[in-house]
Structure formats: C-alpha cells, structure tokens
Amino acid sequence: MDINTLIAIFVFATGLCIGSFLNVVALRGLSGESIVFPPSKCPKCGKKLNWYTNIPVISYIFLLGKCQFCKKPISLQYPIVEAANAILYLIMFLSFGLSLKTLFLCAISSIFILICITDFKEQVVLDVHTYILIALGLLYNILHLGSITILESILGLIAGYLIFELFAHLGTLFIKTRAFGEGDTLIAVGLGALLGLKMLILCAFLSLILQAFFAIPMLFVKYVKKKNFSGASAIFIAVAGIVSLKLVNPDSTYYFACLLAICAILLLCLFEILRNLKNKTSESLSYMPFGPAMVVSALLVIFFSKQIIGIFIG
Ligand SMILES: [Zn+2]
Fold it and tell me: What parts of the chain have a pLDDT lower than 50?
C-alpha cells in the first residue's frame, strides 16, 4: 500500500470520528447541554454506550440500527452524518492534497453538516455555527487559500448581509413574517466571505433550484396521500412540461404552454414553502430547508462553478 492510500484511509477514519462528534455537538447545541461532560448515551433509555457500540457507522450496522439495551431504533441521522463528513474529508484530500486549504475546507464542511442537522431537525440555525463559518471564510481568504482577494471577501460578507436582509424583510409584505430566519442571512454572510459576492449569488440561485427539485416530488407524494388529485396532476403536467421543453421547437406555441406550466409549478412550490413557514409545521416538511440548500450549493460551486455557469449561460 502506498503512502497516499494510507493517508486517505486515515483522513476518512478521522472524518468518521469527527462526524460522530458532530452528531453530539449539534444535538447538545439544540438542547443546551454541555458538549464535553455527559458521556455518549442512548437518547431513548439513557444507558451509557460502551466503546465498542460507539464506533462510527460500524456499530450502527453491527447493532442493526437498534440500541443494545432497549432495542429502540437508533436514528439514521447518526450514520448518515458520520459517512457524509468522512466522504467530504476524503473528497477534499483527494482534490487538494495534504494542505492548509484541505484543512480549512474540511472544517468548513463540518460546519456545513452542523447547519444541516439543526435546520433539518428543528428548522433553526445556531449563531455559533454561522459565526465560525464567517470567521473561517475570512481567514481562508486572508491566508490566500481561495481565488478571491481579502477585499472581495469583505465585500461578499457585507453585500451578503444587505441582500439577504432585504429579501427577508420583503417577506413581511406577503406573509407578515420574515421570509427566512436571521440564521439563513448569517449563512449567506459566511458564504459571501468564503466565496465572494458573485459566487454567493450563484449559490443563492442554485439553492432555489435545488429546493424546487426536492419540493416537486415531495409535494406530489403529499398531494397523493391527501387524495388531492388536482394538485398531483398539476405537478405531473408541470414535470411533463419541463421534459417537453427539450423536445419541442422553441418557436411553437406548445413551447410557450410548457413555460407557463413550469412557472405555475414554481409558484405552487413557493406558495407551499411560504405556507409551511407561516404555520411552522415541521412534521409535514414538504421542502428542503434553506440552510441545507445553501450549503449543498456552496459545495457544488466550490468544485463546479465553471460547469454550473456554463449550464445557465451556455
Ligand atoms: Zn436505549
């Protein structure tokens, strides 16, 4: 085995262990418990876990996803977070080698994962996570690890704040509440500091598309379950419209009809997201929260910004 493979295995294993720690940090951050003190325990029965039932991913598979004491199912969140963190660390190492850039991007990936956990679980973004992201973003460019200057980084930070707060307040015109939380603005501020204004705008655009991409199938399932067949068929027609765009002549009236159908479905998704925000219904979450959409977009932009711009501009 050559040295690079050995390091790659080490990086992956470190990613698994830190991923395991991230589960604890996120959950105790939400509940306000201390990170260091209480040892790992089953959230259902409270029994302390042995070291051999606390190995990332492997223990979950070995225990068949159940607590060894009370046999209650263990949340899939644990192995998913561990695996995601390890895979991201490995991707960073394979892309940028053993470098300071890799170290920073690994730390930033872990913050992204923390944001995803708290946003998916309780629709909140904790300030401590976004503050670390902002600090890492600035430091990343102060150390010249990225492709933008320090000035562009600071500009991205300020512009991110102003643009996102403007849109958040515009929401009050329509639903009498902010369109999204202050936590989401702070994510944008961090990404602005990390990637600069241009890439931040690309991230925001991409995250809206990601949200629509996930909202369409989730809405379809929800409508079918509720036997709302007009809603379900509306989505079906819209998806057919999107597919047809590729097949029909751009000059025909049919193309125009397709575009109309797609606009209708995007409005429907937006309406559904706003309705969810207004009612704060977490159990019937039929959209991808904004935080996770933004951080996934940021990862895509870090690796594929040229290709993504190419798709939109041609
Ligand atoms: Zn238990």
Answer: 282-283
- Which run of H or E residues covers position 105? helix 100-122
What number of other Cβ atoms are within 10 A of residue 247's Cβ?
9
Task: Tell me, in angstroms, the distance from the centre of ligand 1 to residue 75's CA.
Answer: 11
Q: Sign of the CA dihedral 30, 33, 39, 45?
A: negative
Which residues are in the CB-under-5-Å shell of ion ligand 1? 42, 44-45, 67, 69-70
Return the pLDDT at 282: 47
Give residue 255 CA to ligand 1 midpoint distance, Å.
Answer: 57
- CA 6 from chain center: how many Å? 30
Q: How far is the CA of 285 from the centre of ligand 1 (A)?
A: 27
CB 106 within 8 A of CB 89: yes
Distance 55 CA to ligand 1 centre (A): 16
Distance of alpha carbon 164 from alpha carbon 177, whole angstroms: 15
pLDDT for position 251:
76
> Could you tell me the distance, in angstroms and rounded to a whole number, from the CA of residue 284 to the centre of ligand 1?
27
Q: Is 180 left (phi over 0), alpha (psi -120 to 50) or beta?
A: beta
How far does residue 30's CA lie from ligand 1's centre (Å)? 20
Q: Structure pTM? A: 0.85
What spacing in Å lies between the alpha carbon of 282 and ligand 1's midpoint? Answer: 25
Residue 184 and residue 164 in contact, taking contact as beta carbons nearer than 8 Å: yes
